[in-house]
Specification:
single chain; about 350 residues; alpha+beta; D-Maltodextrin-Binding Protein, domain 2; Dipeptide-binding Protein, domain 3; three-stranded antiparallel sheet
Length: about 350
């Protein structure tokens, strides 16, 4: 491992206290004269979401991005007069429940549709996101409005219906035993994501209604990545994905047949030649109208096949101490630390 990396950016690596902090210091040779303004940045590793919120409130830290803040804390933090909040930062982000289609009981579209019909997605948003987010309406969420197919609406296609879900599972050959149960499913997720911890509990309750015993496995991020994306040792997983600037950057990798055995790619085992073709055409079409047409057709297929379910669209809320100036200068709240400063 290179413990003395160097690049051409505004800051350079100084020290790493494993499990505690990473320190960057000003790069005096940075090509933009006079920048950066800060002498150093220290990234603190705080495993628990609630502790991150507390660190903001006490002034232990000066900046936290939304990704790892408990949504249940957002409204309280927004009321804190020592903090500045910024909503809607960053790229379109959506949170999924993704299937392992290699799992026998989840290998058919009909079985996955039944799982969808069992989920109370509004309750998941209301409780795990504290209402700061929107129930996902389709495979791409609502972050890229120009490509949305108005005919694809999960609420209309799959309203919560336990009786219908059970019947669909029976028809798909996923039958219940004498005890009414259809087997066990492993649900893996990053233990550091507070909304996943809450959402997983609701999903467990929902799927018990149709006969599945869900084993919740909240695990450290590196272990989760290994088990889900590299070893495929899971049945269900909760994941967040962003697609900065264009859907081809972030969302195509979730469905392309060949995008496997790498972090944050198509670990579901889903493969559909028609989907591969539409993704290729959508990525290379010369104008937005043509691309929207390909994406519209793609959404119809994905909404039927359901290799994954969009639970909710996130509304990012970042927080900074009012001691900081120059934050949120770029299109992404995390990219222009060369412009951030504070009074001495």
């Amino acid at each position: 491992m290179n413990l003395k990396p160097i690049g051409t950016g505004p800051f350079k690596f100084s020290e790493w206290n494993k499990g505690a902090t990473i320190k960057l210091v000003r790069n005096d040779n940075y090509f933009e004269r006079g920048k950066p303004y800060l002498d150093a940045i220290v990234f603190q590793i705080i495993p628990q979401g609630a502790n991150r919120s507390t660190a903001l409130e006490t002034g232990e830290v000066d900046f936290v991005v939304d990704f790892y803040l408990p949504k249940t804390d957002v409204k309280r933090l927004e009321a804190n007069t020592k903090l500045t909040a910024k909503r809607g930062q960053g790229a379109p982000a959506i949170d999924f429940m993704m299937f392992n289609t290699r799992t026998k009981s989840l290998s058919t579209a009909e079985a996955r549709q039944a799982v969808m019909m069992a989920l109370d997605r509004k309750r998941i948003v209301d409780q795990s996101m504290n209402g700061i987010g929107r129930v996902g309406r389709g495979p791409f969420g609502d972050g890229f409005k120009w490509l949305l197919n108005p005919a694809v609406d999960f609420d209309k296609m799959y309203p919560r219906d336990i009786a219908k879900a059970k019947a669909a599972l029976d028809k798909a050959g996923v039958t219940a035993g004498a005890d009414g149960m259809r087997g066990k499913l492993r649900l893996l997720y990053d233990s550091a994501r507070p909304q996943f911890v809450s959402a997983a509990q609701i999903i467990k309750e929902n799927l018990k209604d149709i006969g599945f015993d869900v084993d919740l496995q909240a695990i450290e991020r590196a272990v989760m990545i290994q088990k889900v994306f590299l070893d495929w040792e899971y049945d269900l997983t909760l994941q967040s994905f962003v697609s900065s600037g264009d859907p081809a950057i972030g969302y195509h990798r979730l469905y392309i047949t060949t995008a496997t055995k790498a972090q944050f790619t198509n670990q579901t085992g889903y493969t559909n030649p028609k989907v591969d073709d539409l993704l290729a055409k959508a990525a290379t079409a010369p104008d937005v109208k043509a691309r929207a047409g390909f994406y519209g057709e793609l959404q119809t297929i994905l909404a039927n096949d359901l290799p994954s379910i969009v639970l909710f669209d996130e509304e990012g809320v970042d927080f900074a101490s009012k001691k900081l100036s120059g934050t949120w200068a770029g299109i992404d709240s995390r990219d222009r630390w060369d412009l951030v400063w504070m009074p001495k």
